[in-house]
Every structure is written in C-alpha cells, then in structure tokens.
C-alpha cells in the first residue's frame, strides 16, 4: 500500500538529590537517595521511572528492570514532567526537540503524524512505544500523542530488540502515561493562543476508598483551534481514565485507557516547483526544485479525522524481593478518514487494530561474589489493518468512490532472556531473543481481483554490554546490539516490505556528579541498518522504498536541577548517515535531511526568594545544521542551517494573594523569532512552523 500523494503526506505514511551511583565495594554510599515525587509535584512513576526535576535517576525502559541509569550501558535521555510543564510541548516532536540525535523538523509543519529520526534512522512507524509496549501502526494509521496525558518520555538510543523484539535500530521512544497517585491531586487549566486556539484541560487523581487500596486518575483535553495552514483544523477531544488496585505491598494492578477524537488538515503542504532531472542511466524525471507558499490543497475538502482508543493493564506481583512477576498487555484500535485535494478530491480510509502483551519474570540471585538480575520473558504482538483509497471523478465536496483496497496482518511472538551481572564495580549485560513472524497481505482494485502473499520469518537478536561504575559517579561502557523489525505496507515495486535488520556498536561514558542533581553523558556510535523503510517522492507520489544505511556519530548531553532554582538541559550531536544501497545514483550519498551538527540549550530559573518569588523564566535555543534535501544530494535542495528560539514565563499567583494559592499563569512560545525556512526531505519541500504562543491559567488544589 501507501501510494500517497507527495502533497498529502509529509511523514510516513516522543528538591535536590545526589545523582545515584553504585556502591559495590562495601563502602558507605556518598550520594543521597533519589526522591520520587508524587501528587502535585509530579515527579515520576514509582517502579517505572524516578526523577528529580530535569534529572532521571532510574527507569525501567532500558532494561525492563528498575536499574539506575548510570549503570545502563546505553544512551538514555528522559523528558521529565517538569520539562513538559515548563515547555508546554503540543506534540511528540516538540517534546523531544531538545534531545540529542533527534531530528524533528524534516517535514516542516505537519500535525497529522509525528515524523522524526534518531541517529539518522526513521523512527516514525517502528520506534514509538507506550508504557513499555510497542505502539502498533499501519501506513496511514499512526497513533497521535496528547502530551497532557504523559508523565515522562524515555528515549533509548540504539537497538533494544533483545528484550523488546520488533523495534527500530535507532532505539525506542517510550511514552509513559500518567498513572493514579496515592495522594490527592486535582488540576484544571484553560489555554488560548495562536491560530484561534481555545483549550481546556483537567487532571484528577487520588484514592477511591478509605483503605487506600484503590486509586484513580482521570485526564482530559478539549480543544478547538486552527493551524499554521489556516485551511486545516486542530480540534481534539481526549479522555484517559486509569485505576490502580494495590491490595498490599506485593501486588499491584493498573488499568490504563484512552480515547481521542481529533481532526486536522488532510493536506498540510505547499506546492513545489519542478524541473527535468536526468540520472546516470539516462532516465528523465521531474524533480522538485523548491516550494512556493501556495497551499497545495483545497480548504473545502481537507478534514483528516482520526479516532483512536486503547485499553490495557499492568500487573505486578512480588513473590519476594528476589522474584517478581510482571505482565503488561494492551489492545488498541484506530480509524482514519482523510480528505485531500490534488487536482481533484481524494479519500483514504484506514482501520487498524492491534494487541500486544509482555510477560516477564525478574529474579535476583548470586553465584559466589557475583550478583545476577535475570529477566526471562515472552511477548506477542498482532497487527491487522484495512485500507481503502479513491481519487477524482466527482465534484468537490463529494467523497470519491473507494477503488483500491489492501489489508495486512502481522503476528509476532518472541522469547527473551537477559542477565545483568554485577561483580565489584563491573557491570555486564547479556541479552538474547528469538522471534517468530507471520505475515499475510492482500491488495486489489475493485472489479479486477486481489493479489495475496504470505510470509514467515524467524530471527535472533542480542545485546552485550560492559561498564565499569566508579565510586565517584563515572561509568564508561561499551555495547553491541542487533535489531529486527517487521514493516507494514508495500514498497515501490508493489511487493510487501521485508523486515528491517540492524546492528550498532557504542562506546560511551556517564557521570553523575556526586551530591548534585546533575548528570553528564557522552557516546560514540557506529550503526548499520539493512532494508530500512524510508519514503521517496517518485513521479509526484510519496512511496515506501527500502535501503541500506550506515550512521556514525557523537552525542553529548547534560541535565541538572539545582537547589538555587536553576534547571539546565544541553545537548550536542554529530551524525554522518550514508546510503549503502538504494540506486546507483545514491550509493555513498548522505541520507536526506540528516544534518551533521545539531545543538540545543534550555535554561529555566525559578526565583526562590524576594519579591520575585513564584516567578519562573525559561528560554531555549535549538541549532539545526545544514542538510541535503534528497537522496540524490542535489545542491538545489540544500537545507540551510537554522536557529530556533523558544521561551516560557510563569507566575504563581499565591505570591500576590494567599487566596489565589494553586493558581498559575504561564505564557509559552516556540520559534519565538519566527524563523521560517524551506526544508526538503526525500525530494519534496516544506516550510518550518512559524511562531506559536500559548497562554494558560491553571488551578491546582
């Protein structure tokens, strides 16, 4: 499937405490224990992720065990709740924009899909997880994120297939949902801002019974708005209920649900100018030579409505401190109805359903002086989607008849084992997994029959990593891992996309500064991905193609939340991504839209005393270096470097009048200086999103 018009699809179709570090030689710890803050301070999810301000100290996303992040031999970044509250991101891309290695602007402005890359690898379809389970997507059915329903986002860079199975070589982005809190929490918020935005939020949580064994959370959003392209709406209704049952300290069951109904523009791009291009084989095709600010669609037929829902649970039972059983499962469903206009009306309807489950047993034991954390597990996933498309032949405003249809089923089962070994200051992680994949695909044109195909595949993936954790908070490491990912949809020649495989070697060092809530990270990586799925504009159509790519780079990150009220997030990344195999004209070329250099800095200061108490000011700068606009590396489509400035200011009104306790005013802006340039990806050109300002009034009690 996925023969989308280029003008339709711009993505495939996110207190202070000493930073924890290990004490393994019997000496007394010199750091403060990390504090997990609940209730109105929103500081992590017990047992899932622990954070103090901007700094995450431990998390389950990287290893599926509650491991100090200093001891995880792989690059991990975390977008914490304070960062989400202070920056007010409106989608996954804005949430991870300050994360090293994340390319988020390659399709300009587009609210339909969260299209992004990490370490030069496209993550859109196969790199997003929700609460430790893969978020199943189809070519035109990608789940949208509501940031207000998110507690934190954990970004693991590099392969994690040895425990997660189907996942991108670039890593995983694990979105952690808000969960019930054991202390009462209540919040309502009103927002207004750019493009006629009017939004209301609410978030309620706390115990449901006197015994405090049952807890709830109910989070919701209602929004009416337009978008950067005024022909598109940005309306949304979101509701996320959650219940936790905790009869004792050994057993815990949490139910997580979500329903979202959203409408955005079906066409969100500009017209491109074309000129003939002759390749090395003498073939002549029309290729884009740039965009013009003329809307490519028609506002009278431009609604893209998507209804999505999910229901799942997380179960944990501790037989003892050394033996823990966990089972997580989720069913999700999504339906889309996309109207667009490209020299005539077009319509795409797609329905997607998926089920994922993961059952694991964590055990702790020793063999002589060596400590083991052994994880064994079984997980399954099932994806089925049905898509139908029609184009032209009817007056504007009338749905064209659906003339082509396709459907696909992908089922995958995997077993895995991981051993985290501790001996003195050494940490060794060994993991292996075997997957069995079954696929079935059919496609046809109404009245002319259906073509069908089936496939079966098996694959072993693994990870081996070694680190040395010093007593003063420094931990160098080396790691190697492989990946395996089934792909939905078809490629350019109409055949079913084959699974993607990959491998990566990474060398890095981590430093948690003793007696400070601050951490520094640096890594060097060398990654290869075979049969990677990317999108290529061919004869005006956006189609899936598969290529081999090699990506190398360096990443540096620092985060801190200090006692004086200053919080910092800084990053730098260098990335050289090259095509190894696609066409004779592209071999050895730089991969489209991947800049060599990116850097970012966000500073936030909350006044602690004096007349300005309650005032918080934040500001950030994001630099995106130059890149190439297509895989042919034509200079006519070079993407110029750009610098974006973001800002935020907030004030707690109780400092004016105690009767206003719990009320906060805030104004947040992205691209404050309105830096808007052309950006081209795989041969089609877009424009950056301009300045966006959101003002809010929040009340907590």
UniProtKB/TrEMBL annotation:
NADP is among the record's keywords: no
- Residues annotated as domain TonB-dependent receptor plug: 69-172
> Has the keyword Lyase been applied to this entry?
no
**UniProt entry keywords in alphabetical sequence:** Cell outer membrane, Ion transport, Iron, Iron transport, Membrane, Receptor, Signal, TonB box, Transmembrane, Transmembrane beta strand, Transport
Q: Where are the transmembrane segments?
A: none
The record's section on Pfam families has: Plug, TonB_dep_Rec_b-barrel
Gene3D superfamilies assigned to the protein according to its UniProt record, in alphabetical order: TonB-dependent receptor, beta-barrel domain, TonB-dependent receptor, plug domain
Domain (TonB-dependent receptor-like beta-barrel): residue spans on this chain: 248-672
Check the record and name the InterPro entries matching this protein. Answer: Beta-barrel_TonB, Beta-barrel_TonB_sf, Plug_dom, Plug_dom_sf, TonB-dep_rcpt-like, TonB_sidphr_rcpt
Topology in the lipid bilayer is annotated as: Multi-pass membrane protein
What does UniProt give as GO cellular component? cell outer membrane
Q: Where in the cell is it found?
A: Cell outer membrane
- MF (Gene Ontology): siderophore uptake transmembrane transporter activity; signaling receptor activity
* Swiss-Prot/TrEMBL GO biological process terms: siderophore transport
Q: Which residues form the signal peptide?
A: 1-22
Per the record, the similarity remark reads: Belongs to the TonB-dependent receptor family.
Q: Which PANTHER family is this protein grouped with?
A: FERRICHROME IRON RECEPTOR-RELATED (PTHR32552), FERRICHROME OUTER MEMBRANE TRANSPORTER_PHAGE RECEPTOR (PTHR32552:SF68)
What is this protein's name? TonB-dependent siderophore receptor
Species name? Labrys okinawensis
């Amino acid at each position: 499937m996925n023969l989308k018009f280029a003008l339709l699809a711009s993505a495939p179709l996110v207190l202070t405490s000493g930073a924890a570090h290990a004490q393994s030689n019997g000496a007394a710890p010199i750091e403060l224990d990390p504090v997990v803050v609940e209730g109105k301070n929103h500081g992590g999810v017990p047992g899932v992720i622990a954070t103090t301000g901007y700094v995450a100290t431990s998390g389950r996303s990287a290893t599926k065990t509650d491991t100090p992040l200093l001891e995880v031999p792989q690059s991990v970044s975390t977008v914490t709740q304070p960062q989400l509250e202070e920056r007010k991101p409106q989608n996954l891309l804005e949430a991870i924009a300050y994360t090293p290695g994340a390319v988020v602007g390659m399709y300009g402005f587009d609210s339909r899909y969260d299209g992004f890359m990490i370490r030069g690898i496209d993550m859109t379809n196969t790199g997003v997880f929700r609460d430790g389970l893969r978020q199943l997507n189809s070519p035109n059915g990608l789940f949208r994120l509501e940031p207000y329903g998110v507690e934190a986002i954990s970004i693991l860079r590099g392969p994690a297939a040895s425990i997660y199975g189907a996942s991108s070589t670039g890593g995983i982005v694990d979105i952690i949902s808000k969960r019930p809190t054991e202390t009462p929490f209540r919040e309502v918020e009103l927002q207004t801002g750019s493009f006629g935005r009017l939004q209301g939020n609410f978030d309620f949580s706390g115990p449901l019974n006197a015994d405090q064994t049952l807890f709830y959370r109910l989070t919701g959003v209602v929004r009416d708005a337009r978008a950067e392209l005024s022909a598109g709406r940005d309306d949304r209704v979101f509701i996320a209920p959650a219940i936790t049952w905790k009869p004792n300290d050994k057993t815990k069951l949490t139910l997580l649900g979500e329903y979202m109904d959203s409408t955005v523009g079906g066409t969100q791009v500009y017209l491109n100018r074309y000129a003939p291009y002759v390749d090395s084989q003498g073939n002549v095709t029309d290729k884009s030579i740039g965009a013009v600010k003329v809307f490519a669609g028609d506002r009278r037929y431009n609604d893209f409505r998507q209804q999505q829902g999910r229901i799942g649970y997380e179960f944990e039972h501790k037989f003892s401190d050394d033996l823990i059983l966990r089972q997580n499962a989720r069913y999700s469903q999504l339906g889309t109805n996309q109207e667009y206009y490209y020299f005539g009306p077009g319509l795409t309807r797609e329905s997607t359903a998926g089920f994922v489950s993961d059952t694991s047993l964590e055990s702790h034991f020793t063999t002589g002086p060596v400590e083991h954390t052994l994880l064994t597990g079984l997980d399954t996933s099932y994806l089925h989607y049905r898509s139908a498309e029609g184009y032209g032949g009817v007056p504007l405003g009338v749905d064209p008849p659906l003339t082509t249809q396709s459907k696909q089923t992908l089922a995958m089962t995997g077993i895995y084992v991981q051993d985290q070994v501790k001996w003195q200051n050494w940490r060794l992680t060994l993991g292996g997994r075997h997957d069995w994949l079954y696929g079935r695909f059919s496609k046809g044109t109404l009245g002319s029959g259906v073509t069908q195909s089936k496939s079966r595949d098996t694959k072993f993936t693994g990870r081996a990593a070694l680190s040395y954790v010093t007593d003063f908070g420094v931990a160098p490491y080396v790691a190697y891992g492989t990946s395996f990912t089934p792909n939905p949809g078809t490629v350019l020649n109409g055949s079913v996309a084959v699974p993607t495989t990959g491998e990566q070697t990474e060398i890095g060092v981590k430093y948690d500064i003793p007696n400070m809530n601050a951490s520094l990270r640096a890594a060097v990586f060398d990654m290869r991905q075979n049969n990677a799925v990317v999108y290529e504009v061919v004869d005006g159509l956006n189609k899936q193609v598969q290529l081999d790519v090699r990506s190398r780079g360096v990443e540096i990150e620092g985060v801190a939340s200090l006692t004086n009220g200053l919080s910092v997030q800084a990053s730098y990344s260098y990335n050289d991504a090259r095509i190894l195999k696609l066409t004779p004209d592209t071999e050895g070329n730089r991969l489209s839209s991947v800049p060599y250099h990116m850097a970012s800095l966000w500073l936030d200061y909350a006044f602690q005393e004096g007349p300005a108490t309650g005032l918080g000011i934040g500001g950030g700068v994001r630099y995106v270096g130059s890149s190439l606009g297509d895989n042919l590396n034509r200079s006519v489509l070079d993407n110029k470097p750009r610098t974006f400035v973001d800002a935020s200011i907030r004030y707690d009104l109780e400092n004016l009048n105690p009767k206003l306790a719990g009320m906060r005013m805030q104004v947040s802006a992205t691209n404050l200086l309105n830096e808007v340039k052309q950006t081209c990806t795989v041969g089609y050109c877009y424009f950056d999103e301009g300045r966006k300002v959101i003002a809010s009034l929040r009340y907590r009690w």
